[in-house]
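User: Teach me something about this protein's shape.
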Amino acid sequence: MRYQVLALFAAGAAFAAPVAQQYGGQQDGGQDWQKVWQDQLASMKQVQDGMGKHEPTPAPQPKQYEQPKQGETPANPEPVPPPKPDSESSTYPDSPTEGGEESSSPPAPDSEDNSAPSSGGGNGQKVSSSKAFASGAGCKSQELSGPKAHDGYKCYGNTADTMPSKDKWASWDSLWEGNQKLLKTACTNLGQGADNSEEQNKMIGEAIQKVAKETMVDARFILAIVMQESHGCLNVGATNNGVNNPGLMQSHNGESFCGASKSPAEQKKSIEQMIRDGVQGTSDGEGLLQGIDKYGDIYAAARKYNSGSCDPSNLNNAFSSTKSYVQSIANRMTGYVMSPMQEPTC
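Assistant: First, the predicted structure itself:
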């Protein structure tokens, strides 16, 4: 600080010299020069006093937003900052994330749909009765082993417990093989046009097994109903006793075969739908599955399917339908193949 003061006096002397020349010729020049010198010293002292005490210039304060009065437009509206980017956010725009609302994660790809087609009132149903699973009418595994099929006909009693139990039912392979001789000539035998092709008969077997697996109805029972109702003839006509009964299983107002002129894929789909209509029912009526769940065995379910009504204490009560129907189903479960017209009456 001492050196700074000496420097200031030296600067004052340097400044005083030209001032003295300016006022030296005047009568009162000494007095004027002395005044100027004193003024300069005072100015230098102010500089000295201020050295080392520089205060930082205060930063300009942001303009304060004034809340306008009601109905008044603000003269200095507060600027709205741009939205802050959120690169780490795992949510999608406009997707709610809290309060139990929709998840913000992207939708999962659709999984493969193995359910039955949407047409038909009973589609999607499965056997649920524990009694049905115990009797064999419901079958979860579809591992259908059993004795070798025997093509014969026997008269049983009029209740389910007098008819063949599941351990007496022939194996699927044996029943399917045994019925080939009837399938190949079914339409000719019924006078219903051209017989099924070998490929079409294969489609029938595949459709029965597929629907059986989905519904847990024993595939052998489905085959028995197909053979009883139509002999497996794809071109079979519909019967109508107040209700239209078409197709392989003569279902309740279901579908008929699409025709051999259609593509193999369309024929396969049509055959499968006829089986579904008979097993799961249609929008107009029940199928085998509903009778199985209601009564718990295939024999009462068969009577209900044929007659629309069932008296479990007398399954030969046909309610104006086919009296021997249940007897014939019981025989088909063990291997009977003859056409219904040749059945003995029990």
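Now, about its shape. The two ends are 137 Å apart (CA to CA). The first helix runs from residue 2 to 23. If you'd like, I can walk through any region in more detail.
User: That's plenty for now, thanks!
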